[in-house]
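Amino acid chain:
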Amino acid sequence: MRKHYLTIIVYFFVCLPVFSLDLTGTTWGPEKRGFGFYLTFNTNKDFKLEFSGEGGGQGVIGVYLQKHDEVILSIVTINDWGELPSYTKQKEIKCKIVETDSLFSKYKIVGSGGLELWSLKHKPADGEKCIIDGFVIYSYSTDGKVNDNARIREGPGLQYKFYSFSFNDFSEVHNSLPKGYRVKVLGHSENKTIVEGVEHSWLYCVFEKSMWEDQYCWIWGGLIDY
């Protein structure tokens, strides 16, 4: 009987499926998108790592080798710009593909030199339980429009601080989004809040503050129409 149990244990570890993901044609970037470095894997086993944002053009190219969840990026064009991340200056970046519970992507790739990028392709399904900034959230993607002046907050509740912000670096400071302003809804909170007798979940939203910057925030669901 002891031998039988040992056989089962050995079989379990030997035959355990190895995690793998086809990288061909995929692009990886910052978790919340926006400006930063984006990594694209091409079909002929080469890659490009490019900066998206003001200035741009500080990219590197190279070839990659993948074995299951492990990836080696061999950079052909080393970039010596002082302000760039250290991983763009290495000849070789050893990486690993990791599963996540992020609202923005089911997978990320992490590597030496501080590389940490999320897949733009593999997103959670609607209704899937995720985590964002430490808050439980259920993925839900749709366009919305503010139906009244709406304060935007750091968390899903009235107790969380609301943001003050400016559009396109103008000096005028806003304490709320104006009625009719359009936002992208990315998910809804686990908890609900009653405001003036009406109960709603909180919605995690994003809107464009400027050409290079998006604002992520929580808005009480009663202030958003779909």
Q: What stands out?
A: The chain is about 5% helix and 45% strand. Residues 18-119 form a domain with the Lipocalin fold (CATH 2.40.128.280). Residues 6-17 have pLDDT under 50 and may be disordered. The radius of gyration is 22 Å.
